[in-house]
Amino acid sequence: MDFDALSRIPTLRTKLAYIPFLGAVGGYRIGVKPLEGPWIIYDEDRHVQLAMKRELLLKKCQSYRHTHPSYQARLEAAAMLCRELPMPKGKNLHYCSAEMQDDLAIMEKSDGEWRMTAASICFPSNWVLKDKFEQPSNVIHAQVGDDKFRKAIHAGLDKVTEEIVERFNWALDDTFTLRHPEPGALQPNPLYLVPGLTKRNAGSKLFIRYERQTLRRLPETGALLFTVRVFADPLRHLKEEDPQYIPDFVKAYKRHKTQGPWCGPMFEYLEA
Fold it and tell me: pTM (2 decimals)?
C-alpha cells in the first residue's frame, strides 16, 4: 500500500498508551521527568507506521534533513540507536529513523543558540521541517506559548544531561491521521468543522492526539537527541478503557484548551 492508504488505517491499540493529562495537566509547560520504562517502544501499530515511514524516508526521500557539520552527532546518535533497535550495527541515522515509530531530531549549540541540525520528522503536529531546520529553539517554538515559556525552553536545554528524560503534550483533534504537515497558524481549528457531532458519536469522531518526547545529551559530541512518538486515539478509548481518568481530562481541557461548540457533546459523552 502507498502512504495515503496506510495513513487511513486507524490504531490497532484499544486503550491509551499513556495518560498525558494525568493530574489535570495541560497548557504550555515543560514538565520533564526521568524516563519511566524503555526508551524506544514498539506497539501494535508498528508494521503500519514503519511502512508509512519507509514510504516517506526511503522511497520519497521526504521528511529527513541534516547539515554536513552534524556528521559526528549523527554518527553518535545512530550508534546509540543501533544498540536499542532490532537492526544491524553501523546503520546511519536516516536508516535508523525508518526502523522506529518515533521521529528524531538532533540539536547542537552554536553562537549561544540550540539549533536543529538533523531531523527525521514523518509525523509533525502542524509544522513543516524545512521551516524549522537549522533554526534556533525560540524560532522552532515560535507558535508555542509566550516569550517567557520559550526562554524557559532554552534554559532547560542547557541543563539536559546524559540521563534520559521524557515529557508529554496533548490536544484534541478531528482525525487519527498522524501526519499533520500544515502550519497550524495557517489553519482554522479543525474541531469547528466536525460534521454532525453529538454526544452519541463524540467517542468516534473526536481523537486525543498526544506526544511522548524523550531527550538526552550525547556524551561525546554534547549534542541533544530528541525522540518524538505521536499517538492518536479515539475519545472512546478513554471512556471505555480508562474511565477513572475522565475527571482529569475534563478538568485539564476546561482549564487549558480551546473551548468551542464541540465541548458540549464531548463532555456529555464522557460524563454520561
Answer: 0.93
Distance CA 180, CA 199 (A): 26
Name the residue with cell 521524557: 166
Domain span at residue 94 reads 3-271
- C-alpha cell read off for 65: 534533513
Query: In the chain, what is the greatest distance between 2 CA atoms, to the nearest angstrom?
Result: 56
CB-based contacts of 4, cutoff 8 Å, min separation 6: none
Tens of pLDDT along the chain (272 residues) come to 889 999 999 999 999 999 999 987 765 566 789 999 999 999 999 999 999 999 999 877 779 999 999 999 999 999 999 999 988 889 999 999 999 999 999 999 999 999 999 999 999 988 889 989 999 888 877 666 666 766 777 788 999 999 999 999 999 999 999 998 876 644 557 787 788 999 999 999 999 999 999 999 999 999 999 999 999 999 999 999 999 999 999 999 999 888 889 999 999 999 98
Task: Please tell me the chain's helix, strand, coil percentages from 3-state DSSP, rounded to the nearest 5.
Answer: 40, 20, 40
Count of structural domains within the chain:
1
